[in-house]
Amino acid sequence: MFPPHFDYHRASSIDDALDVLERHRDDDPRILAGGHSLLPDLKNGRASPDVLVDIGEIDGLRGIESGVDVESDTDHGTGQTAIGALTTYADVLESDHLERHAPVLTDATRVLADLQIRNRGTVGGNLTAAEPGADLPAAALAADATIHVRGPDGERTIDAGEFLGADGSESALGERELVTEIRVPPSPTGGYAKKTHPASGYAMVGVAAVLEIDTETIADARVAATGVLEHAVRLTAVEDALVGERVDEAIETAAERAGETIDPADARSDDHASGEFRVHLLSTYAAQALERAMEVDA
Ligand SMILES: Cc1cc2nc3c(=O)[nH]c(=O)nc-3n(C[C@H](O)[C@H](O)[C@H](O)COP(=O)(O)OP(=O)(O)OC[C@H]3O[C@@H](n4cnc5c(N)ncnc54)[C@H](O)[C@@H]3O)c2cc1C
To answer: Per UniProt, which keywords does this protein have (predicted)?
Structure first.
């Protein structure tokens, strides 16, 4: 399949991109980053914008910055890591800082697609496309990430859950808004485990886990799944079963509760796995993700 005709603009700056989006507001303009979700959509007829705004050459949208202070209206504390929206998966994997301070992102990226896609695909594009089997939405939820955007009304910060529509609502990203960076608070723990789709590499089921451990006891837990519903989702029953428990005792029983909050009738079903099977798989991958999170902490 060939993509439909579109006008192409290569943006030189964020302001330039926002200006083009505004001028073409009636032409269904779309932002182009790594292109690994958008170009297949164009070729398959799932998207037919009249205008593409390529942000790939904008300075300052790519890179990983440590020790970023947060605004006073968030409760993440200081020392966050800022990941530019155009940061590729390969950049994430090369970052020792992320591996130490946000290992859940590194772990999820390690098993994301293949080498070609990891060289081109971007963190911002992955979270914006938020495809049902994408790996980073679950990792971003577990990491308690915030998404920073700029648009016609200026800058704003969106909680990952709201951005990803983790409660089943529409994504909070507005029209003509551009993701500029993703911020994550520091956490020395984090693990991701996935049942990989045999053809595409997407997650049939993926689980991300971040634990806060205080002398052998789990003080806080964030566990999220992808691939099961149309959007990534927090596994709150697992989180509740972990908090306050001893690390070495809690995993198995907590992981068994992974499917509790998801009705199999709501789960994605296709030729490869029924909704019921996807929900059934959750416990296995939750246990693996939690074990990996504790390995990282050790
Ligand atoms: C064969 C194949 C296998 C794949 N396997 C996996 C996998 O295993 N796991 C996985 O997670 N993903 C997988 N992907 C998807 C891949 O990771 C994409 O790179 C990703 O989903 C989108 O990122 P991108 O940079 O390519 O974005 P693009 O395709 O350029 O854009 C995607 C969407 O996001 C919007 N967008 C992009 N950047 C911004 C921004 N900064 N601000 C606002 N909007 C923006 C675009 O307008 C578009 O709507 C696979 C893709 C392919 C083709």
So the answer is: FAD, Flavoprotein, Oxidoreductase
pLDDT in tens, 274-297: 999 999 999 999 999 999 998 865
pLDDT, residue 116, reads 92
Sheet arrangement for strand 80-84: 64-68, 80-84, 178-184, 146-151, 154-159
If one residue of 18, 21, 37 were mutated to test the ligand 1 pocket, choosing by the most ligand atoms within 8 A of its CB, it would be 37
Pairing, β 51-54 against β 30-32: parallel
202 C-beta closer than 6 A to ligand 1 = yes
pLDDT beyond 80 at 209: yes
How far apart CA 142 and CA 231 sit, in angstroms, is: 14
Does residue 33 line the site of ligand 1, with CB under 6 A? yes
Residue entry with tokens 């993440």: 76
- Supply angle C-alpha 262, 165, 115, rounded to 5: 90
- More reliable by pLDDT, 127 or 200: 127
What is the sign, positive or negative, of the torsion defined by CA atoms of 264, 37, 189, 163? Answer: negative
Three-class secondary structure of residue 16 per DSSP: helix
46 and 83 in contact (C-beta within 8 Å)? no
What's the pLDDT tens digit per position in 239-258? 999 999 998 889 999 999 99
Using the mean position of ligand 1's atoms as its centre, give its distance from the Cα of residue 274 in Å. Answer: 25
The reply to whether ligand 1 has any atom less than 6 angstroms from the CB of 195 is no
Question: Is residue 132 lining ligand 1, measured as CB closer than 6 Å?
Answer: no
